[in-house]
Amino acid sequence: MAENAANPVDDDAEDAPGLRKIIHVDMDAFFASVEQRDNPELRGKPVAVGGSSGRGVVAAASYEARQFGVKSAMPSVTAKRKCPDLIFVKSRFDAYREVSAQIREIFQFHTPHVEPLSLDEAFLDVTEDIHGIGSATAIAQAIRKAIRETTQLTASAGVSYNKFLAKLASDQNKPDGLCVIRPGQGAEFVQSLPIRRFHGIGPKGAEKMARLGIETGADLAGKDPQWLRANFGSFGDYLFKAARGIDHRPVRANRIRKSIGGERTFSEDISSGSALRETLDNIIEIVWGRIADKQAKGRTVTLKVKFNDFQIMTRARSLDAPVTDRAQFAAIAHEILEAELPLAMPIRLMGLTLSNLERGESSAPRDDPQLSLL
Q1: Does 84 map to a domain?
Q2: What is the top EC class of this enzyme, as a single word (predicted)?
Q3: Residue 364 in domain
């Protein structure tokens, strides 16, 4: 187990009055780890969950595969080129949901205030220590231990006084790690990070910031709100608070979800019909996986593109009855795209969502300000 050695456990500091105690738990390479657990022949080898065909996409990658630069949402052909020995396995969402349910039971034992972000991660508010364990850090340790004993899988956790910091912390010592950011440490921790670590800042955003002289959280903290709004619009308000470790959002259990989707920002603009269709297929693969995760049913499919001049176009198709399967979802998405071809100019981003969801689909949306596949 890796821990943040610079921050030894200090329960008095952690328990300062008036502050929330938030844990973010994130399973390590979840889909791939389940496959390696269930198939011993895959252990220690580079594994990708997803399709291996020319238009397939990586849904998850083991840590052995990540060492070669293989990432989720990467086209399978690119992943295979980076790692010739990569082993592809088909996704088994029933198995992942079963493990996720076991993990949720562990969360619920410690607090009713659980905000799931996906099958493999969630926020927990443990301000009330219902079992008298002693501290949020000790609760996080107990949760990770229970997950390992119950599922034979590892989880990383971040502990802090708000959601933004807890999520950053959970990624700090992966895999199988624990990091604690205590009151008074948030701004210093955030300002020590490269700007790419900030939620919602993708490759293009990081490039723009670098051109403006912003490469670290400290650089960002040096900009005033007016400058940030002038250069980043309303996103500037988020950046100003993020650079100071400020986040007042509560953990919201059973929040009603309005849509499920994802988007991809490209390293290079694309415009040809074949490239657009292949990209859409990759996005469909990822988004339908999320829809299946939540067993969601919706009646509106929306395609979003951002042109290289930053103008955004959205086109939607609504049905009288909910979308029933991946084939129907894919067909509708492609119909929307084909109706707009050829596009007026190259695009730098494409996104796809299912909305107009049936009542009863209750789970928190993903936490990042910009939901990205990359």
Answers
A1: yes
A2: transferase
A3: no
Q: What angle do CA 23, 26, 239 make, to 5 degrees?
A: 70
Q: Is 121 a catalytic residue?
A: yes
Does the annotation flag 320 for ligand binding? no
- What's the distance, Cα to Cα, between the start and end of the chain in Å? 27
pLDDT single digits (tens) 264-318 = 887 778 888 888 998 898 899 889 888 887 788 899 999 999 998 888 899 999 9
Q: Any known ligand binding at 293?
A: no
Total number of domains in the chain: 3
3-state helix, strand, coil in the chain (%, to 5): 40, 25, 40
The continuous run of DSSP H or E covering 312 comes out as strand 312-318
CA atoms of 256 and 178, how far apart (whole Å): 30
Q: Is 158 in the same domain as 216?
A: no
Among 137, 130, 109, 131, residue whose Cα is nearest residue 15: 137
Question: Looking at 79-154, which runs of residues are DSSP E strands?
Answer: 87-89, 114-118, 121-125
Residue numbers in the chain where pLDDT is lower than 70: 1-18, 53-55, 255-256, 359-374
From residue 188, give the alpha-carbon distance in Å to each of 136, 172, 177, 246: 21, 14, 20, 12
Task: Give pTM, 2 decimals.
Answer: 0.74
**Same domain for 162 and 214?**
no
Q: Are residues 43 and 169 in the same domain?
A: yes
Task: Give the range of the structural domain holding residue 342, as residue numbers without chain letter.
Answer: 259-357
Asked if residue 369 is part of any domain, the answer here is no
Q: Please, are residues 47 and 65 in contact by the beta-carbon 8 Å criterion?
A: yes
Going from the C-alpha of 270 to that of each of 208, 239, 306, 350, 352, the distances in angstroms are: 19, 28, 11, 10, 17
Q: Both 87 and 62 in a single domain?
A: yes
Q: Is the dihedral of CA 67, 71, 76, 81 positive or negative?
A: negative
Angle (CA) 161 210 164, round 5°: 10
Calculate the dihedral angle through the C-alpha atoms of 162, 167, 173, 174, rounding to the nearest 10 degrees. 150
Which of 35, 64, 115, 121 is catalytic? The answer is: 121
Q: How far apart are CA 119 and CA 294, in angstroms?
A: 8
